[in-house]
Amino acid sequence: MDLLDQEIIKLLEDDGRCSSVEMAKQLHSSPATIRRKVKRLIDNNTIRIIARPNPNKIGLLMRALICLHVVPNSIDSVLQWLFVRPEVIWAASTTGRFDIIFVVRFVNTSELNSFIQKDLVVGELYQYKHSVGNRTQYLVKYTLCIRVPDIH
Description:
Helices cover about 35% and strands about 30% of the residues. The protein has helices at about 5-15, 20-25, 30-45, 75-85, 110-120, and strands at about 60-70, 90-95, 100-105, 125-130, 135-145.
């Protein structure tokens, strides 16, 4: 990846609909070069151009931060499962008290509770904490297995 690729990515991060003509003007290149580079970045899975809805406009008014402590050697599989969940808007593995932290969006608390109680994690969960607004609830469960579809 060269400097022009990096600059194209920066522009697309700001505006995924930025035209190749506009990018070419800003980056002092030709539109054909920009189109070719964008196609290559997409084809080799360096970038994806996606629609990111405004959660408030589509009724997803509740956001929650959830922290997980999972059994050893299951962090990667839990993260893979989280990344494909439509309600998960951000997830990362961490060091310290919890192994994974992620953010979800829901229409209401009953959907959040259903997600926590029915869908939450791959494998065994030792402990989780979630925060909604100013309130934080600590819930401790030991060797809690929750059903999850297979990850392929």
